[in-house]
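User: For documentation purposes, I need each entry recorded in a consistent format: the amino acid sequence on its own, followed directly by the corresponding structure tokens. There are two entries in this batch. Please keep commentary to a minimum and don't merge the entries.

Assistant: Recorded as requested. Entry 1:
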Amino acid sequence: MNADVDAIDRLARRQDAVLSRRQLIDLGATPDWMSRRVTSGRWLRLHPGVYLVHTGAAPWRSRARAALLYAGNGAALSHTSAAFHHQLLPEPGRTVHVSVPSTRRVRHQPGLRIHHRDDPPPSWGRLRATSPISTVLDLVAETTSRPDDVVALVCAAAQRNVDLAALRRAARARGRLRHRALIEELVPLVDTGIESPLEFRYHALAGRHGLPQAVLQVREILDGLWLRADCRYVGLGLRVELDGRLAHPHGRTDTDVWRDNAVVVATREITLRYRWRHVALAPCAVARQVALALVSLGWAGRPRPCSPTCAIDGQQSLVPKSPSGRA
């Protein structure tokens, strides 16, 4: 029996140009025929018994498909690989992660990490992957996960329309989960409009220092421009914009300038703008500056210091101090 090249090509188009040795044999390929394809450079062997059936580098989907074919029955992309597949992470990383039932013995390969699991989570799809909720919890459970990573994942899940109430229920049901309390805190906050770790940090510092509650993610048209304010203190004439990008580290972008000017012209509102280093490294100074602006605009409340070394001194008037206080 000769190899059915047309059938191989059709299957390759459905499987990201990756086929298993078993599939090829079923289509008439012999071991010698496959070996000649590899040694001639026409094919690439990605894992034992798994081939990329064209020349050139393997894109991520092909590497992911190869990992699933190699791992066999019950295998599903998981952890960072599933997160990238579900658009919860911007990059897939160098290693493909696959979960398999613990009853199966699958060996690690270069660029492939196998997770043996007693109770595999739900998975589905043409490129089989663990569910978005299970994927988030798998990454949260990693020993290297940080609070900011958890916030970013939950925010990304919300933006991909993951049911956050179901995520919270799943977190409660999973045993020995790191950051369970943080997920409990996050879910209602994300529902109100928090979309990033930076916004979560600002919300936390505002609460610690007794600042009034802002309205989040306000969208409106001003001077012909669609604008969105991260935080708006309605009735007080103050907006706070938060920018977590590392680009333009020493000044505002042209878009920022046009936006801030449009706000002033249309509403007479002040815009305060902070980057990651301000909120993360000098949260008390940020709180003090926001409080100064609010008081100058008529806020009748008073901020409170979060610690004895806070930049906000509860015994003194709100006179600007050097931004050196730390929470």
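Entry 2:
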Amino acid sequence: MGLVAVSALIEMPFGIGGFLYGCFGQLLGVLGIHHILNLLEINMLAQFHWDYLNPIGTCGNIAEAGVVLAVAIKTASNKMKQIAYPSALSAASVITEPAVFGVSLRLVRPFVCSMIAGGIGGFFASLLHLKATGMGLTGIPGTLFT
């Protein structure tokens, strides 16, 4: 049932579902329920030999990395710079928790910007029908080496 609902969301016409998942996928991580999607991804890989959630979710991760890097560059606070630069690097490698909890949620506006940017990336990923053929490392390293 969950696979059908997520499939219906992602397969909405004109990339709307990808936009919605790209926007609100970050909230799943904040709430700690993002790992439940692994079950859906494994099921998709077993049934169809591809997974379309992973590329859309990766857009949200890269958006978070970009937003936190922008905060690191623009802020005057040395303490925030010390948190934001390494957090941007780890977010580009798909470990977004330091970026989200250490920078974005503290300032709120960067988190909203990352949700919007993730939605735009998810829109294009959905429009282009991007699919992953396996699970594992995502983000920039996963994109370069798969």
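Summary note for entry 2:
Residues 53-74 form the longest helix (22 residues).
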